[in-house]
């Protein structure tokens, strides 16, 4: 059994490294490295968007939360297709009017401020460390279940593999491995659900047994209403404006490609979330006394599914984690190289030097979360809530200046900087000291919007050159 698992996992990782090596050969410029040359079609573009969205937060975190508190958390997921609709209908046509290499580069162009770009880069680095920590923890859990090694050892191995192929291939490596990983995630999930249901007399029997074992599963009592609403807000805002997602709008060819790609992403993400909900119900009945809900999916794959299928499912979970972390490592590398180093430290840095700094940044941002885990940060917290904290930080920092920047001509650089700083600081303070029944994204978002409006109105109106490219009809991407 273990031999087969080793063969499947080793084969999978060898394929990932091959893609990374080939991508290094195909990468000819910075544009190739950061946004795949803006040449992605809707299939690869939609696949990389879906794979980036579907992380350990889905396969381990969502299942873990539903296992622990019931289906009320599922209502949070309804906001995801709404967020993607908003991205296509409102944000993308204006946001892609001028293509940049990074999200903070957009902030600099729109607000004509290097400081805004630098602040954006710092926020990305901070939030990325938080998010990657959740994925590394999940990687350790999978390694422990599959191979019986210590979780910490699994986390270290997982981190090393991620760093190698992201450092080597850049965005081309990321998008093509994302395509592979999306296929594995979809196939693994679709095959696993009916095999899990074999242990019951159909879906209705499973539901009846869940109601008997955990009567509150299908009620609203798992989450306080206010917390559920504010968590939904975090998902919506974060799905629209997190850097690793909006940068993919730059990577796709045109609006027609973006619309089709986002539709593919919505179908895949929504479908996977519905299927993992069924797997969470199965885990409640088959393994009702797990020490943490985060073990539900790995245990299902290990103990319930046939060895080959279970290993494919665990490979799917690993794919979900890797596809998100590699994207975030790339975003963090670009933030350090383009938005902080070149923008604020060495304006004349060569392309070779910037890529060197980026790779150093990727290495640092990959290692710091591992050190944080070893030191005990967020110990015992469900993976999904670490993921949502990242989403809250990104949402409070970027949603207002990004969306506001393409919708409101009067917005100024002072408003954008105050919005980012105020939103992120408020989110952090609320997380540490605020009412736990109100998720930090709500106060963070409110402060972000207020700072954006008040500081913009209190300062001199921006020059026409700052906002004009995003409002001229000839520049708007509609096809």
TrEMBL record:
Q: Where this protein primarily resides, as one coarse class?
A: membrane
Entry keyword set = Amino-acid transport, Cell membrane, Ion transport, Membrane, Sodium, Sodium transport, Symport, Transmembrane, Transmembrane helix, Transport
Which reactions are catalysed by this chain?
L-proline(in) + Na(+)(in) = L-proline(out) + Na(+)(out)
**What is the superkingdom listed in this entry's lineage?**
Bacteria
Supply the Gene3D superfamilies for this chain.
Sodium/glucose cotransporter
Q: Matching NCBIfam families, A to Z?
A: sss
This protein is called Sodium/proline symporter
